[in-house]
Design brief:
Elements (H helix, E strand, L loop, with lengths): L18 H18 L3 H7 L7 H6 L17 H14 L1 H21 L2 H12 L5 E4 L15 E5 L2 E12 L6 E8 L2 E8 L5 E5 L11 E12 L11 H35 L1 E2 L2 E2 L4 H29 L5 H25 L11 H11 L6 H13 L5
Parallel strand pairs: 1-4
Antiparallel strand pairs: 2-3, 3-7, 4-5, 6-7, 8-9
Helix pairs in contact: 1-4, 4-5, 4-7, 4-8, 5-6, 5-7, 7-8, 7-9, 7-10, 8-9, 9-10, 9-11
């Protein structure tokens, strides 16, 4: 008799993980079960990010986890992907927080910053004592970041920055903002500190997605920034786009966790729900839907694992990230919607996870490259023609 398969891991992906990778997944998974799942529904309802969990996330080594030194964990990228998967099994807002801190703020300082910038900021960020945000998107420059209006002009040894950024995760609680601005020498990155005169933030309210996450607008009115706060090792779009590639890599893993959470919930529900004198999961249509969800999750798991292998081998291409982000987020949002429907009337309340994940994934499928953008990236690779 063959051994029973794991309902959330039909192809036994765990058996392909190293001992360290498995340990990372299990430890973060336990923390999500113990600390996130009991409180995240209420946090979503109340439009609150659970700030008290930041020190615990830091103690677990979740910030800058792939960076060597500076108090960071120095894990491989497959481990980072598994971290994103387990965090998003809790909530997309939680994964977004860790993703912004790690991939969009600590990574550019590590990759493009001076030695002084690395020593000053990275150890504090690894401890969660300094929170970062990433300022690229503008109200009229989302999918086309090259058209940004925010600009920086040299003034002696300083830069004067004017403009604004929109849809910024962590913006109103961040101690520093990694802000990308037009200069006479192309787009450059600056570390803008919370208390610099002329720098202001504003919370974005009335969100129906990522409610357990802080989203803000950033405003720069003649903000004077010393040249020591400019990221010296990159110019042009290569800087912000490389940050986005790192973040999109994590996003390719994260929604697998959201889909697993939805599937587990509906597996339990259809076993317990009795309709016409038998459990709901006795129906063919229910089993077909469950089987299709499992197939799509398994496909996404294998895609993410291969993505991690390529990333760890330093062979990953942006087109591969685009395909994985497109496939895996689409997979998760479709499963969340299907699970919400299968829960019946109960599915519209946040006592169940499906509608929360469904709403969150509406943001995930939009940010860091919309689904259409990633489709066009793959299309350009296949045809050699730019359709943007």
């Amino acid at each position: 008799m063959s051994a029973k398969l794991d309902k959330l891991d039909i192809f036994n992906i765990k058996s392909l993980l190293s001992e360290e990778e498995l340990m990372v997944q299990e430890s973060i998974g336990r923390w999500v079960d113990d600390r996130i799942l009991p409180i995240i529904g209420l946090a979503f309802d109340n439009h609150e990010f659970p700030m008290d969990l930041i020190p615990e996330m830091a103690d677990l080594g979740l910030f800058g986890s792939t960076i060597d030194g500076y108090g960071c964990a120095g894990l491989n990228y497959t481990s980072y992907g598994l971290i994103c998967q387990e965090l998003e099994r809790g909530d997309s807002g939680l994964r977004s927080f860790a993703s912004v801190q790690s991939s969009l703020c600590m990574f550019p300082i590590f990759a493009f910053g001076s030695d002084e910038q690395k020593e000053r900021w990275l150890p504090q960020m690894a401890k969660g004592e300094v929170i970062g945000c990433f300022g690229l998107t503008e109200a009229h420059a989302g999918s086309d970041p090259a058209s940004m209006k925010t600009h920086a002009k040299k003034d002696g040894d300083d830069w004067i920055i004017n403009g604004s950024k929109m849809w910024i995760t962590n913006g109103s609680i961040a101690n520093i903002a990694i802000v990308w601005a037009q200069t006479e020498e192309g787009i450059q990155g600056f570390i803008i500190e919370q208390d610099m005169p002329g720098f202001d933030t504003e919370l974005i309210h009335r969100k129906m997605s990522l409610r357990a996450s802080i989203t803000s607008a950033l405003f720069f009115d003649d903000v004077r920034v010393p040249d020591a706060n400019r990221l010296p090792k990159v110019k042009g779009l290569k800087g912000p786009l490389s940050c986005l590639s790192n973040a999109r890599y994590g996003i390719s893993w994260g929604p697998i966790g959201a889909a697993q959470a939805c599937l587990q919930e509906v597996l339990d529900y259809t076993e317990e729900r009795v309709l016409f004198d038998r459990s709901l999961n006795c129906n063919q249509i229910i089993q077909q839907k469950l089987a299709d969800m499992s197939r799509r999750i398994t496909t996404a798991q294998l895609l993410a694992l291969r993505l991690g292998q390529l990333k760890d081998a330093d062979q990953l291409q942006p087109t591969q990230i685009s395909m994985a982000k497109w496939n895996n987020v689409r997979m998760a949002i479709d499963i969340a919607r299907e699970c919400r429907d299968m829960l019946g009337g109960a599915g519209i309340t946040t006592e169940h996870v499906a509608i929360r994940h469904m709403l969150n994934l509406e943001s995930v499928i939009t940010y860091e490259g919309t689904e259409t953008i990633h489709q066009l990236v793959v299309g350009r690779e296949l045809t050699g023609k730019n359709a943007f």
